[in-house]
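2024-03-11 09:14:02 DEBUG pipeline.ingest accepted 1 chain
2024-03-11 09:14:02 DEBUG pipeline.ingest length=80
2024-03-11 09:14:03 DEBUG pipeline.predict start
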Amino acid sequence: MQDKLLMQDILMLEKGVCDLYMHGAIESSTVNVNETFKCALNDSLSMQDEIYKKMEQKGWYKTEQAPQQQIDTLKQKFSS
């Protein structure tokens, strides 16, 4: 159980880092700073994906498939 909690903490921290890098890219005032934040964001997104996949393999992060009707309703809502 300790490993699961540790992985959950790491995943939450990585998601927070992604959020910070995204806002840094949005708010950056120069091309160099923007590119640096975008590169860091892409690296962090890759790490987050790896953590998620490892947790999913161990059954520690379960997702459910949304019903098709709900998907269709949302698509219709946002396409108008």
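2024-03-11 09:14:41 DEBUG pipeline.report The first helix runs from residue 2 to 27.
2024-03-11 09:14:41 DEBUG pipeline.predict end
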